[in-house]
């Protein structure tokens, strides 16, 4: 390990590290050798360093590290900068500038998985770890400054000077005087994954009897075909699915539907708000012919509720509407199986895969998630007992998983749809659009709270029922379940490309998640505009544009003001947009650029007049 130490005062910290096994120390200071050696104890520490084989370099500017080391010696595994300061009575602004130059310089000499350790006096960092915490404007804003250079705060712990043999802090106001380090913190930064590159992505899928391709909506570019549920995946979403399947198989015969389910649906879905769908245009020259599509749909897939318009067109021989959208649910595929009677009574049919829904921005609102759909045909009159048996099995499995992970029993409840008292989350609200619901399945970690809706129980529509059998289905949001079980507070973390996420989940294991990006900075911007006369703002489209321009880095959108101009009746809206990333560095300049792009997009696509 190559370790670089910057800003050493009397070199006592470097001398304490130089004997570590397998560590090559490069100790530096800003002053010349003559100036540095004049500090108390410095000459002795320098001799000790050189005797142990360490390098000692003088007159090193921490903002220009690349200039001080030859190309073959620039890659350091760890960089330490203890109590950086511009000197004398420099204020917070100058010290932020110093840190900004330092972090940008570190990015040029740090190994790929290296660490940057910055020790700061109590309160300087400006994070919640500081006790007491300074006001943000009066701190060094170390996390935001580091983010501007591509670093995230991955750990923070007390700087215990008394445990470092021979260490003596020095340099108070650029003098050979010590200063108070009680309550000081060591901030450990790591390099963030690179910013997402939203190049257009084309996806192939089957539609009827034909293979077609389409351009993926930009907001889904990094989420399409990720393979979370594939056999070689160790993603917690797949582990939750496998654990649930194993639990269900102990009480029921179980059959996984292994055929590839089409990503696209066609036509105009009844009952579903069109603004919640990702509408798709097929690649030029790839739209399936009416004749082939009619034959494919008539012979294979006729969606009750979702495909009634298309089904009717097929039956009456009329042209099929050439409108396509990404599947928002697996329910139509289950209904196709039911209609063809392609199931065995008493056997669970399990379908799973990603589904896509436009929605507002919120911590548990996901434009894409993995649905597990369980379908069971039972004898008429036994449906209530079978539903209870199915739910009890799911409850037992989830309780066992939650207790094994956190040692606490989860709060799992089945609530009737007619008496559901908790405000619907986006998952539950959309499920209402798909058809009548009997029960909501809610999971929470607080016994005094009913928890979040993670599943719904329903019976098949009347048109699919028979005299002898009733078909029961349970739709589960696997992503929400993984979040609740593993303590993941932000759904976006499930889709991170940072390898540190999956490293915490060895294959087949669920564990409490420990974030590798602590106290991520947030940036607040307001946008106000006039709404076109006589029109209502499509809030889902508004939020979707925010997702698109920011790469899912908008964490909150709140309406701040709704103003109607006297006399003209014109209406103005003001929204507060908060930018924050959960897994990678986001600097203030990047957030400001996103805000400007957002303003341009809403003006172009929503027809509003910016103020």
From TrEMBL:
- What SUPFAM superfamilies does the record point to? Anticodon-binding domain of PheRS, Class II aaRS and biotin synthetases, S-adenosyl-L-methionine-dependent methyltransferases
Q: Which residues form the FDX-ACB domain?
A: 518-611
Note whether Aminoacyl-tRNA synthetase occurs among the keywords. Answer: yes
Name the Enzyme Commission number(s) assigned to this protein: 6.1.1.20
The record's Gene Ontology biological-process terms are:
rRNA base methylation; translation
For this UniProt record, give its keywords in alphabetical order, as a comma-separated list: Aminoacyl-tRNA synthetase, ATP-binding, Ligase, Mitochondrion, Nucleotide-binding, Protein biosynthesis, Transit peptide
Identify the PROSITE patterns for this entry. Answer: FDX_ACB
Q: What is its main location?
A: mitochondrion
Where does the UniProt annotation locate this protein? Mitochondrion matrix
Reaction(s) catalysed by this chain's protein: tRNA(Phe) + L-phenylalanine + ATP = L-phenylalanyl-tRNA(Phe) + AMP + diphosphate + H(+)
Which Gene Ontology molecular function entries are recorded, alphabetically? Answer: ATP binding; phenylalanine-tRNA ligase activity; rRNA (uridine-N3-)-methyltransferase activity
**Entry GO terms, CC:** mitochondrial matrix
Q: Please give the family membership noted in the entry.
A: Belongs to the class-II aminoacyl-tRNA synthetase family.
- Record-linked PANTHER family: FERREDOXIN-FOLD ANTICODON-BINDING DOMAIN-CONTAINING PROTEIN 1, PHENYLALANYL-TRNA SYNTHETASE
Q: What is this protein called?
A: phenylalanine--tRNA ligase
Species per Swiss-Prot/TrEMBL record:
Nicator chloris
